[in-house]
């Protein structure tokens, strides 16, 4: 269209900040429930196909008005992200590999036909928001400020009018039991993602259909679902999955399903693979012997294989990973009416999961410098 | 929960009607664009898990305010329906088999973990809304009032707080070209629905992911997509599909994919199957000889079969059906880089499609009484 070049981009330099007159009390860390206490402010911008992006605003968190025929209600046209800000020993707010989340956010938005934005500008804006909300970031291991960027189509189907906002909520450990091993119910009848579907994008449409099956798992006494595609293991709840296997050569395989379109390309997933690959040649993982060779790989894993590995005594650990949980051990899988008990460990995680958890949270909190993954919000 | 019995149901007897002070001008029928001119009023009710359903209201159509962390934005938790009101020769507004839409609406809502409602009460309320908006129903074949019931989760994921509303827009023939034959692009890479997915429900999540592939089809000069699952034909755009085949015994097969979980159980689909089964024993379809025996059936159909039927000269007609289009002929399928030309007919529809279209619209408009399918809004 001829108007395209004149449309404004999302520009951090146009940021308008209007602070709340009255600030809310920050709840004590132990009272935090995941994503339930929104901070004082949000980042907000709107897009229309004539003018492009509005000047972004940091403004008091609050409701907005939408037309009843907005396409997001009818067609689920929305994409989102989940990322975290941390405060480390220096008291400075930090983000963890935020460019990966923002790049995925842009891909998810494009998949849902939502308007494009400049990822670098959005990162600058998120840093500005986190700097404003710094007092909300709880200190302490397992605590952080959860950051939820969203982009949602409003107006009619073809209008390409959208709202983008970023909201924040302080958060403690994701699961009540801390690092206790999860008991998962493997789902055969409900399929989270399929070839040609949207499983590799972080779009609203992947989540609504999972609410009922997750509730069914809870009702049966499980903590979460294990998503299957036929016999293939794909994800656990909203997390990627890893299996740790003993090798014949004394080393350890660390495997996770490949990014075949049905798997969310998780930032934690990618980080786990990278950290495992770095041990021990480039860095020793805490608590793991430098002589223990880790062999990370992306490969298909099936329930049949899982049971065989278990029977052979090769399956050492299974865990799920994600921004919310970081590394969460899996101790049991309900499958075809029986429970498959996996190796469990005092304190929760097995040695490989624990080593990766420690190193990852050290990097996130700014206690260990690694490849620029932990990014300061204030220069 | 102990509070459950005290929660209010959706009750038509509690309806509060507040009419708009100023009514909008009704656009001339020829200027109507599908779903773009909302009428003066909407039906509205809200649900919370403590109080249940609010007293339903008919009130001026207008925006509402939502919290940025409403679950519909993050998880696509919404379901909807598409139905139509017609005015026939008697000038009375009518609905077409509305109980089927409302039953599907309740099933879709339940699939998305949205609160339950009494379908009979919702039907009473929709009739009341249509009666209020009677002046908006355009007269004439192919014209009607499109009715969009919606139910959307607001609030936090687990809060089960929801809004239900019904909005209306006058509408003319769905596709600009009237009954001209559609040219469809068969989609291999993007899959609309999958076993274990939500294809059989009318939920927002089924639609957002189709916007890009539909645009890709339009960009290549096609009118719509033909959805495949592997080699299987499933749906066309947002429509069910039928193929008409010549039988060796001189009769005619009318086939459509079975409701295996990947197919929306369309009201028009069901009506077409029923009308075909009634011909000629119980009723003669207009323009079809009583000696022409129709054999409707639900069976899997593949692209391989379609091409074989075409080569054998057995494929007489292919058409798509739905509330919006009623019966729309399909004249071409782009598949694996080539175009498959289907039989086309002067005026658009072939004899079987035309006969079914005529009888169905006669029933919808109240010109032909059939099994109580056309339901008056005012008693």
Word description of this protein:
The structure is a homodimer of 379-residue chains. The first copy, chain A, contains seven helices and 20 strands. Chain A starts with 15 loop residues before the first strand and ends with a strand. In chain A, helix 2 packs across helix 3. The mean pLDDT of chain A is 94. The first copy, chain A, is of the alpha+beta class. Chain A has two domains: 12-171, D-amino Acid Aminotransferase, Chain A, domain 1 (2-Layer Sandwich); 182-364, D-amino Acid Aminotransferase, Chain A, domain 2 (Alpha-Beta Barrel), CATH 3.20.10.10. In chain A, the strands form two sheets. In chain A, strands 1, 2, 3, 4, 6, 7, 8, 9, 10 and 20 form a ten-stranded mixed beta sheet that branches. In chain A, strands 11, 12, 13, 14, 15, 16, 17, 18 and 19 form a nine-stranded mixed beta sheet that branches. The radius of gyration of chain A is 21 Å and the shape is globular. Strand 5 of chain A pairs antiparallel with strand 5 (64-66) of chain B. Chains A, B: This is Branched-chain-amino-acid aminotransferase. Chains A, B: Its cofactor is pyridoxal 5'-phosphate. Chains A, B: It catalyses: L-valine + 2-oxoglutarate = 3-methyl-2-oxobutanoate + L-glutamate; L-leucine + 2-oxoglutarate = 4-methyl-2-oxopentanoate + L-glutamate; L-isoleucine + 2-oxoglutarate = (S)-3-methyl-2-oxopentanoate + L-glutamate.
